[in-house]
Structures are given as C-alpha cells and as structure tokens.
Design a protein that fits this description.
alpha+beta, four-stranded antiparallel sheet, 11 helices, about 40% helix
Length: about 325
C-alpha cells in the first residue's frame, strides 16, 4: 500500500513538473494509472486532493490556475521548485541545527530533521552541536494544540480557514471565517493572526480556544497580508504585551506564579494574600479570569468591571 501511494505521488509530481501548461483533473486522471482505477469520480477527487496536499507538504509548489473558460488546472513550475546552490558556513549550519532541535518536541520534528538531512546531502557543513552532550538546557517550543498543524499549512499556502472559537468571556464557541497570516508563540501559548472576514478586521486567536477541527476553504485572500513585523506587534499587543498603565491586584499566597513573574512590586498582606502591581495592557482581564478565585482586582475600576463581567458570563453557562 505504501509503495503504491509513493508511486502515485511520484507520477503526479512528474506530470505537474513536466507540463508547460496547467493540466485539469480530467487530464491528470487519464495520465496516471492509479487514478484510472479509481472506482468513482468522488473516489478520484478525494485521492487527488490528498495527493496534492501530500506533495505540498513535501515542499512541491503547485499552482492552481483558472483559464478563460473557468476551468481549473494545476502545474508545478520548475523554476519555482528548484533550489539555488546552498552555501552555508559553520556558524549558519549550527544555527539551523539549533533551530531544528527546538522543534523536536513538536509535530514538526520529522520535517525539521528531514530538512537538515537534505541540506547536509547538498553540502551543508557539519557543525559541532553545543547542545548535543553535557547540557542541562534543551530548547523547546511546546505545541499541544491540534489546530497548529492545519493552521501552519494554511498560513503557508494562503488558504482561508473556518473554525469554532470560544472567547474567554463566552460560554459557547462561535464559527469564524479567517484568512490566516502567521502563527506566533507568546508566553507559552500559540496565537493566530489573520483577517476575520465577517468582522472585516484583523483579529488574533489563541489556539487553545479553538474547538473542533480547522477546515480549509477554497478561494483567495480578500485582504492584503501585512508585514511580518506588524503581525508580530499585533499578536503581542492583542495578547496583553503592550502595557499602558499599572493594575493593583490581590493574589492568594502560593498561586499565580506567571502573574508574580510580571509584577513590578509584591507586598505581603497576611491571611494568605499578597498585593501585586502588574503592567496593565489589552487582554489582562482575560488572563486574570483564568486564575479564578485566587485573584481579586482592586484597581483600576474598569479592569475590575471587565473581570467581573467575564466571570458572570462563565457562571451563566
């Protein structure tokens, strides 16, 4: 079964790379034996879409072209799928090796290792790995959310997606139609930045609040994708990184260590409570709600009101 699929993928890749014009599904089906043996049109379509996604996952750039008659064709241009000569010095090779190790605990482990093997086969120098032995530190990027991989591929391929999303102050998830731009990791959590079609505005979504399956949609983006630096700033701002003032909270002793790490001052109040001053920016109310009864907001009043509203919304469920 594995050999048959590998042969089918190879034949599809050769067809797409060998053509000078876009080939329709009908033409591809007539050129590849495995597709001719498909029992029905639906079976062929499912097989073709899976194969196309697998080839893209392997790094083949497949273009989708619509002709004047509205028919869809596919091709893989050789100039788009040809790597230039690779020239890396020892320091650059070491940086790539370290970056690959970061992903070893994530679902990109196989892709990262495979990429290194290909680069070494192409002549990348072997670099001494300072993290290989006698190291108490190991770089990691935690990825536990099932939504990460489909969203990463959607960002890469510029494909719109649909998913159910539950806001921190909402009891039930809502369906979102999003044009994904990029994924950012901030304080151990992954966020997606993109264009929310229904709201007609840029939005940031925390992956841990995405429920169910991420579904890809056909079509092109309707909004311009901003600069990467701009997206990073938006993610940080939306998640509460940009602080404009200071909030004063009461925190139960022995709880809320992430809050304590951000505090500019901590004072013991006794009776099992401490008083903290922490930077106050957008998104702090949603973060404080996660600590439940261990946190009491003292000031400012608007932050206290926002936290109370969120807790009441959760209590109504």
């Amino acid at each position: 079964m594995a050999i048959a699929k590998a042969e089918r993928l190879m034949n599809l890749a050769l067809c797409l790379l060998g053509t000078r014009r876009p080939l329709s599904k009908r033409e591809l089906r007539g050129s590849i034996e495995a597709y001719l043996e498909a029992g029905s049109d639906d079976a062929f379509n499912r097989m073709f879409e899976r194969d196309k996604d697998d080839l893209r996952e392997l790094g083949l750039i497949i273009e989708t072209v619509e002709n004047l008659d509205g028919d869809i064709g596919y091709l893989a241009r050789r100039d788009s799928n040809r790597l230039p000569p690779i020239t890396l010095d020892a320091e650059e090779a070491a940086a790539l090796g370290l970056a690959a190790k970061v992903w070893q605990q994530a679902r990109l482990a196989g892709a990262a290792s495979g990429a290194l093997q290909k680069l070494r086969a192409a002549g990348m120098p072997e670099a001494e790995d300072a993290y290989e032995v006698h190291s108490a530190l190991e770089p990691r990027i935690p990825v536990h959310e099932a939504a990460f991989e489909p969203l990463m591929l959607a960002c890469r391929d510029r494909r719109p997606v649909t998913f159910d999303y539950r806001k921190a102050n909402s009891a039930r998830p809502e369906t979102r139609h999003v044009e994904p731009w990029t994924l950012e990791c901030w304080r151990g959590h992954w966020y997606l930045a993109g264009w929310d079609r229904e709201r007609g505005a840029e939005r940031v979504f925390r992956l841990s609040r995405i429920t169910g399956r991420v579904r890809s949609r056909t079509g092109t983006f309707t909004a311009e994708v901003p600069d990467v630096v701009t997206v990073r700033e938006t993610v940080e701002s939306w998640a509460g990184e940009t602080a404009t003032r200071t909030a004063r909270i009461r925190l139960r002793t022995g709880a809320g260590y992430p809050l304590r790490s951000r505090a500019v001052s901590v004072r013991e109040l006794g009776d099992g409570w401490d008083e903290l001053e922490i930077p106050y920016g957008h998104g702090l109310d949603a973060w404080l709600v996660e600590f439940g009864p261990d946190v009491v907001v003292q000031e400012p009043a608007d932050l206290r009101a926002d936290v109370v509203d969120r807790l009441r919304a959760v209590a109504k469920d």
